[in-house]
Structure formats: C-alpha cells, structure tokens
C-alpha cells in the first residue's frame, strides 16, 4: 500500500519534464491574488469590460442560430479540427477588410485552408510553439512582453531571449545584434521563432512602427537560406485603436507567405468567453498544427464558432467594436488624467498614454520595488486596496535580473470612476514609498 | 530571398520532434475519406445522431442564461483555467449520482478542486499524457482501443504497449504478464500510465468487468511503492447503457484517491459541439494539469460551461439522456438485426451485440483484408457506397503487425433505415470478398 512517504519518491519520477517546464504559472498566481483580495480596485485584471460584453448581439445571433435546425445542429455537433468552414470563410473576408485587400487569392494571397481556428489566440500561440520549438530552442521576444507567452515558450523547454524595445516596439538594431551574437556563439540554428505583439501590446500598449514591420520580415527572409525562423505576430488588440487608424500587419509584408504566422482573437474585440481565435499560417505549418491540435482536442467548440459566424453574418460585429472603442477611450482618459493629477509632479514617475489597447505602463523611480513581494505592492493592496500587475513579470530578464520599478495598469475592467479612484489610491501608495 | 530549394532543408530542422511524433493523424485521414465520399452511408463516423442533438434544451437554457445579466456576463467573460465553479459544483452532484454516493467529502471523498474542466474529454486525456509521459515512457492500453488516444500517447514520444482484451475488457492476466515482462527488461520505471475505456469502449462497446476494475486498482496500488502508475479511466460512454444498469467506476475502487484519473465528457450524452469534458484528478496532479492547460489555452469556453450548467440546473439533462438511450437502442437493433439477416449464415463472420455505446465490432475471416488499402474497403466505398472504420486502426500492433480482418461499425449518425441498408450493402461487399 502507498504511504505518504513511499509515494513521495515515485512522484518525483512520475511527472514529465514538460510538467516541470510548465510549473510556476504566473496567471494562476495572479488570479489567486485577485480572489484573495476582492475588496481591491483592480488595475491588474486583463479582462475586458463586463459592461461592454455583447449580451444583446449574442442573444440575437443565438436566437437565429437555434431557430434554424441546420445551424443549430452544426453548433451542437462535432466540427473539424481546423474549425467551421462557414466561420473561416467569413474570417477571410473580415481579415481582408482589416488588410484593405480583397478576400481572394489575389488580395490575401492565401489558400482558405491556411486559416485555422483555435481556442482563443492562446491555443494557436501554443500550437505554433509546439510545432517548432524543441527543448533548448530559442524564441526572440520584444521585452517586456505578454507573460503568458513566456510560460508557453518555457513550457516547451525552450528559451526566450529578450530584444530591446522602445516606444516604437521591438528595436531592429537590438534584433540584429542579438542574431549576430547568437550566430557567433553557434546558436543561430536554435532560433526558431520571433514573437511580436504588433498592435498596442501587452503590457505597454506600444505598437511596432510600420518601417520596423517591413524590416523585421526582410531580416528573417534574408536569413532563411541559413536558418528558417517563424515570425509569430500576435494581433490580439488589433481592433482596439482609439486615436487613429490601424497599421498594416507584419504579415502583410511577407510576400512569399512562408515567414509570418498571424494570430488574432475575438476575445478582446467581442467576447473572451467564446474563446475563438485564429491563425493565418504558412502553408507548410497547417498540417503540423492540425496534427497537434487533433491530438489535443480534435477541434474547438463548434457552438462558439457558429455563434460568432452568425454575429458576423448578421452585421452585429462592427457596431459592437465601435461601441467598444468609444467606451475604452473614456476609460483610458479617466485613468491617464488621474495619473496626471496625482503623479504629474513626481520626479521619476512616467507613463505612456496609449492610442489603443487596454494597458498603461507606469515607471516609478528605480529604488521603488514594485514586485509582488515588494513594499509598494503590499502597501497598495493592504492599505490602499488597489491592485496592479508588477512589471517584472513581463520581463524576460537577463541572468535572472528584471527591472522591478514598473507597473502594468489596465483600464479594462473597472469603470471610469473607479479607475480614477484606483489611480488616486495607487498614487498615494507610490508617494509613500518615495 | 528564399527559393523553394533553399527552404526545403531548413524546414527539416525547423519543425519540432513533437510535430514528428504527432504526424499521421488518423482522424484527419478518416475525415478526408468522409468528405471525399459524401454519397456513402456512414457506418464510420463516431459522431452522435444529429436528430438527437438537444436543440430544444439548449434553446431554453440559453434563453434563461442570456436574460440574466450576471449569467450572461459570466458566459461571455474569461473563466478560470479550471473552469466555472458553478458548473464544477453541479458536476460533483452529477458524478455523485452516477456513483450512488453523496456529493461531499464523505461520499465522493474528494476536494472540489479535484474536478477540472477541459475542451471535451480529449483535452483532459492529452493533458494527463503531457503531465506524466516523457519521450520513451510507456502507456499500457487494452487492445484494440480508441485510436485518437494512440495518437496522443505517440505525440509525447511515448510508447503504447498492448494488453489483451476479451468480452470483459482488459485481461488482468495479460496485464500482469506484461508488467512482469517489462520489469524483467528493466522497463517498469518507464510505465507511467494504464489507459482503459471502462464502459462500452471504442471500438468494441465492451465494458470492463467489475471484478477486473477492482483488481486493476489493486495491482497498481500494490506496485506503487516501486513505480507510480496512473490509471486513466475514460468513461466517455458511461451514460449510454441500454440493457442494464451502469457499473461502478474504476475510480470508485481507488480508496486513496492517488491512482485513478476519471475522465468524462458531455459530448456523447448531450452535445459534442459544446466541448465540455472533465477529469477527477489525484490531488497532486491538479496543479500540473492546470499549469499545462494555462499555457495551452488558459481556460476552455466559458459560454459552453455556463450553458451546460444552466441545462443541469433547469433539469433539462436527465430527460435528454433517457431520450438518447431510447433512440440508440432502436438504431443498435436495426444494425445488428440486419447483420443477422445478411451475415448470420456466413462462417467466420462474427459480431458483438453491445449493451451500450455506439459501436458494433465485426470480425470477418482472416483472409479478408478490411484495411483502408484493402479490397473490402475499396469495394464497400466504391461499389456499395458504405463506409466503415478499418479495425486495424484501433490496434496498437505487435512489431507493426495488426489484425486486418475487423471492422468498427457505428450506429451513431445514420437513421435505422439507412443503418439496415448500409449493413445490407456491407454484407454484399463482404460476401463478394469471401
């Protein structure tokens, strides 16, 4: 019979290396913080605004879908691993609209099979990692970045290597220097992927400048005879632009269609609960991704897919996104104006006013430790009852060292009043630590 | 610039070993067969009956869900990685009902955290493989088995080792012999998992006898001081019993709660389109599975979860399952009675009349090759326009050799008339090959 002590040893050998690589999931830790401190104003949660969730549009779409027996059965039956053809065709049109081209082989320049659906964009990011990254391989990532992706890369036993980033996104000079250094170390053949959140990234809401998009694709294409590298473009926030127009995707500069995988989601611009994301994949990655997905779940939820297809068909989507933009602009302004009022005169405190996305990146003087176990976080949560995401979680770190004087603030969940109040509280906590 | 020839070589190094292990996905191949031959009567598809899909129950539940702003927002917002607590609590009650105990620590003897939701049961099977199987590890599987699981095990770079099976499921003597042989070869420490479809399995609709369930857990528990092995009990067809009552789960014999992971799904008994499955996990596997799932999709579709929760709360589920059983019994009888009429007098042709599940396992004389590239399949599809799943796909094989004289027939999709017609056609094809 197993006793506690006799099971301890076997457990050590029992779990896989993949499990070890996946441990210390940051999201889980952060969710626990939120659950443990429900009294806090949350500038932490990366959720979308509950008040903007599309209840009305969903109700109308689901009513039509379930009153049509063919659509209803399609939504309740299994789908193919790549997802409902009906939605995929609609998404080609949708993508063509974003790209400003026609939805055919002349405009988008892809076969319809290259659009594959996934459970949110996160699953597509994970599948692309699984299809390309072996243990010890390298993914280059603009730093700071979306921390969940760091977990996914590490979960393959692969290594994230940081590329410097400024107000125009990933720096091309830093990318070139890093590639040259890795080549000199004989490590170039381990570089399989470059990950970039192209529009209004998480955590800074910074976008990659258009000329850098072109240059990024050029650099990778030039290298391709020596080493094939996949650029994974995460465009999760693409639709959430507030002050201008959207930029052409990195993917649009990939003339051969072999270099960039474009990954999008309807989590931010419609509903995260449906978990519908998609990837536009280089032709030769479609089979590998589908084989992996086949083994993992053999297809995402068809109900969500047919529901979203109905939303798109019935013209319920565009007006929702317009409404969303209007709602988030007001909230962005509430947060950043409160920052100006309460922190405008404090030396060493800086932030970016984003022109899209859901986040404000705040820098405090270097001697202030904003990490989970630091004094500021503790004061903010315990005394001021406001929560944020410590910026060090978004950094890859060099030799384990990460800047600890940055905060990711989100204006996604709370309303304007609470955002302003939350910023006032946070400002008090910051001033107290100075 | 990349040229076709210059990209060919890098591609070879570009894809991961995991991709190589996942190649040759059987489901994809079979789906292609179905798409290429829409004229065929399908005794192949493992889908559920489209006529029994719960359109009415879903409509009623979704209407209540979307008219309640709190529920509506919960369904449209992100959920936790483990899934909606509301559904998980309802599933504990549901499971307690199946097990004939109370839904508390005294009855089910588990913490509520041990119930984790997944995208269908397939994702939970895949997560358990990822959490435990390293390349070269071994999973023991009753042969023949659910072929998707073979792909998932192989996808980890792990090895499926067959255990003989008879009309009472996995043979305990074969299991003991195999474990002893592996021990003698110094391979026991590579055995991490035993996979068993306990009720009305795929492909034979055979159930594991109750005394074997008890013995299976005993054997693994006795070994646990030497080597920890996880029994994965796949109970996907548990609710689909037709002629008797359900058996106690393998999991119910696991007194310590450390040995068996019970995996269930609502795909067969309600709707595959919702993709809601769950696992009851040993306590120390909850964290590892959630870390892996967090990296893969950080949570399944919350809309489906809250929809199913509403179905359960509103008492719409039990009557649907009753209706399903009634519908499938009729179809089982149509298929097996047609088999008796058309093949009853043919020597060497045998089948099992199942008391649950969706499949009839048909054996033909050994000299008939029923494989995809064999004469029978070709004749059935091309001349008789009826399709089946070649049984060799369900076998693990010993040294690459698999029996090729078996057929998996499903009475899931087609109606009684077409099932009878399909069997008549298949019988003609078989007779022609004799």
Helices and strands in order:
Two copies of one chain form a homodimer.
Chain A: H1 4-14, H2 17-22, H3 26-36, E1 41-42, H4 55-67, H5 69-76, H6 85-99, E2 115-119, H7 120-132, E3 138-142, H8 147-155, E4 159-163, E5 165-166, E6 169-170, H9 172-184, E7 191-197, H10 210-223, E8 230-234, E9 260-265, E10 276-280, H11 283-296, H12 302-313, H13 317-343, E11 350-351, E12 359-363, H14 375-382, E13 386-387, E14 389-390, E15 406-410, H15 416-433
Parallel strand pairs in A: 1-13, 3-4, 3-7, 7-8, 8-9
Antiparallel strand pairs in A: 2-10, 5-6, 9-10, 11-12, 12-15, 14-15
Polypeptide structure, described:
Chain A has 434 residues and is α/β, with parallel strands linked by helices. The first copy, chain A, has two domains: 4-53 and 320-433, Alpha-Beta Complex (Aspartate Aminotransferase, domain 1); 79-315, Aspartate Aminotransferase, domain 2, CATH 3.40.640. The first copy, chain A, is built from 15 helices and 15 strands. Chain A has helices at residues 4-14, 17-22, 26-36, 55-67, 69-76, 85-99, 120-132, 147-155, 172-184, 210-223, 283-296, 302-313, 317-343, 375-382, 416-433; strands at residues 41-42, 115-119, 138-142, 159-163, 165-166, 169-170, 191-197, 230-234, 260-265, 276-280, 350-351, 359-363, 386-387, 389-390, 406-410. In chain A, the strands form four sheets. Chain A has a seven-stranded mixed β-sheet with strand order 2-10-9-8-7-3-4, with helices on both faces. A four-stranded antiparallel β-sheet of chain A has the order 11-12-15-14, with helices on one face. In chain A, helix 5 (69-76) runs antiparallel to helix 12 (302-313) and helix 13 (317-343) runs parallel beside helix 15. Residues 1-12 of chain A have low confidence and may be disordered. Chains A and B meet through helix 1, helix 2, helix 3, helix 4 and helix 5 of A and helix 1, helix 2, helix 3, helix 4 and helix 5 of B.
């Amino acid at each position: 019979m197993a006793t506690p002590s006799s099971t301890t040893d076997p457990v050590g050998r029992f779990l896989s290396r993949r499990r070890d690589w996946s441990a210390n999931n940051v999201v889980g830790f952060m969710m626990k913080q939120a659950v443990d401190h429900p009294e806090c104003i949350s500038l932490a949660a990366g959720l979308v605004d509950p008040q903007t969730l599309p209840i009305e549009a969903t109700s109308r779409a689901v009513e039509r879908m379930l009153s049509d027996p063919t659509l209803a059965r399609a939504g309740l039956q299994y789908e193919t691993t790549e997802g409902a053809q009906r939605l995929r065709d609609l998404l080609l049109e949708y993508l063509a609209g974003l790209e400003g081209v026609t939805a055919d082989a002349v405009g988008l320049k892809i076969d319809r099979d290259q659009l594959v659906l996934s459970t949110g964009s996160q699953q597509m990011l994970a599948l692309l990692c699984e299809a390309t990254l072996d243990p010890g391989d390298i993914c280059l990532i603009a730093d700071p970045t979306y921390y969940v992706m760091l977990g996914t890369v590490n979960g393959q036993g692969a290594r994230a290597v940081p590329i410097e980033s400024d107000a125009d996104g990933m720096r091309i000079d830093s990318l070139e220097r890093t590639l040259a250094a890795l080549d000199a170390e004989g490590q170039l053949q381990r570089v399989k992927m470059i990950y970039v959140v192209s529009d209004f990234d998480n955590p800074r809401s910074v976008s990659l400048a258009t000329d850098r998009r072109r240059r990024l694709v050029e650099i990778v294409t030039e290298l391709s005879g020596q080493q094939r590298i996949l650029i994974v473009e995460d465009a999760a926030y693409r639709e959430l632009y507030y002050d201008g127009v959207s930029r052409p995707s990195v993917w649009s500069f990939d003339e051969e269609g072999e270099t960039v995988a474009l990954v999008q989601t309807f989590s931010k611009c419609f509903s995260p609960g449906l978990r519908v994301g998609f990837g536009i994949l280089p032709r030769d990655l479609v089979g590998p991704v589908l084989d992996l997905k086949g083994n993992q779940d053999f297809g995402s939820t068809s109900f969500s897919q047919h529901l979203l297809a109905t939303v798109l068909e019935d013209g319920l989507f565009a007006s929702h996104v317009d409404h969303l933009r209007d709602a988030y602009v007001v909230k962005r302004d509430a947060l950043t104006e409160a920052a100006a009022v309460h922190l405008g005169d404090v030396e060493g405190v800086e932030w970016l006013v984003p022109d899209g996305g859901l986040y404000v990146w705040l820098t405090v003087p270097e001697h202030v430790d904003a990490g989970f176990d630091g004094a500021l976080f503790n004061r903010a949560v315990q005394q001021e009852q406001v929560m944020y995401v410590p910026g060090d979680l978004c950094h890859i770190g060099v030799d384990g060292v990460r800047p600890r004087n940055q905060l990711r603030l989100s204006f996604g969940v709370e309303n304007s009043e609470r955002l302003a109040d939350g910023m006032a509280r946070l400002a008090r906590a910051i001033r107290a630590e100075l």
